[in-house]
């Protein structure tokens, strides 16, 4: 099926943005050279992502992305993963096969209560978490031996014990929580527990733009 311009935007440099459509197996060939893929409210068939092992950056946005989220563990070269506004997503899959992952951004997952196991993600240096109002299990952050920076945004209830455990690591260098609607004392308690200066604000697009 031929895509309309508003559905499929080839951004050049091996980057494609696909919006509000339904992909089919016939689209796989067009994506074989893509390394940075953004899917916004886009449905994918079962096993679709499995056939794109060259992907390095994947940005999944919107309620339709839940099906794709379940298959991200099949992407061995993935260095950066962002998942946002998948409101009906109850849990994340096991991500421990993504041993090349360096960046993880989770935002607006309203039903998520626990972070997935991440012990094998030995290259994961940066984690962004935001608008995860039900998230109560933060424990897997302590298993990230390479974690350097943690950025929080908007509505959250950070586990202060987890932040304190991160704070004793010399390799943990940056923490910030941007939360204008949260009580200042709550934010201050988290900042005190983490005891680190604010890192630079980074999104998945920044990683792509700064590549060498």
TrEMBL record:
InterPro entries: LRR_dom_sf
Taxonomy, superkingdom: Bacteria
Family annotation (SUPFAM superfamilies): L domain-like
Protein name as annotated: Leucine-rich repeat domain-containing protein
Organism name: Kribbella qitaiheensis
């Amino acid at each position: 099926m031929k895509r309309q311009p508003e559905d499929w935007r080839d951004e050049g440099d091996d980057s494609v943005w696909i919006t509000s459509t339904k992909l089919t197996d016939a689209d796989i060939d067009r994506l074989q050279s893509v390394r940075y893929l953004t899917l916004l409210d886009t449905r994918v068939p079962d096993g679709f992502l499995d056939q794109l092992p060259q992907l390095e950056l994947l940005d999944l946005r919107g309620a339709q992305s839940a099906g794709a989220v379940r298959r991200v563990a099949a992407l061995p070269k993935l260095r950066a993963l962002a998942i946002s506004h998948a409101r009906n997503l109850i849990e994340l899959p096991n991500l421990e096969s993504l041993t090349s992952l360096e960046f993880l951004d989770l935002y607006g997952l309203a039903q998520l209560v626990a972070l997935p196991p991440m012990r094998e993600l030995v290259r994961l240096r940066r984690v962004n978490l935001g608008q995860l109002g039900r998230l109560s299990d933060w424990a897997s952050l302590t298993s990230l031996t390479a974690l350097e920076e943690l950025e929080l945004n908007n509505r959250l209830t950070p586990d202060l014990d987890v932040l304190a455990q991160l704070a004793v690591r010399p390799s943990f260098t940056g923490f910030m929580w941007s939360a204008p609607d949260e009580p200042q004392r709550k934010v201050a308690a988290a900042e005190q527990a983490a005891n680190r200066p604010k890192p630079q604000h980074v999104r998945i697009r920044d990683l792509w733009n700064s590549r060498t």
